[in-house]
Design brief:
By secondary structure, the protein is of the alpha+beta class. It has one domain: Cysteine protease Prp (Alpha-Beta Plaits, 2-Layer Sandwich). The protein has two helices and five strands, in the order ββαββαβ. Strands 3-4-2-1-5 form a five-stranded mixed beta sheet, with helices on one face. Helix 1 packs antiparallel against helix 2. The termini are far apart.
């Protein structure tokens, strides 16, 4: 099971995300659920790296673990909002379509 914890700040921006586990929907290398989650996370990270106004840190110490945290200024707010929406909608779609392999938890950070 892939467990996703998405943290939104009071402005509705995704500022924290922790993903852990494996879907085990198919053998390694053929698991489309794991592949979909991986592509979303990597694309999100690459879009934010070096983006002005966004101080993002990513940590993936091993396969099946991904952590993201960010701070942002007004200059980066709109981009982080759009990128976060895209990631969250993608992960939500996976969790809805494959609930036996992916669980999504939302937390609101004060």
């Amino acid at each position: 099971m892939i467990a996703v914890s998405a943290g939104f700040d009071s402005n509705g921006l995704l500022v924290r995300c922790h993903v852990e586990g494996h879907a085990n929907a198919a053998p390694r290398g053929m698991d489309t659920v794991c592949a979909a989650v991986s592509v979303l996370l990597r694309s999100f990270a690459r879009c934010l790296e070096g983006r002005a106004g966004i101080d993002a840190s990513f940590y993936a110490p091993e396969r099946g673990v991904f952590n993201f945290e960010s701070k942002y200024s007004e200059a980066g707010r709109a981009f982080l909002f759009a990128a976060g929406c895209f990631l969250f909608e993608g992960l939500s779609s996976i969790a809805e379509e494959f609930p036996q392999f992916c669980k999504l938890n939302v937390e609101h950070i004060k």
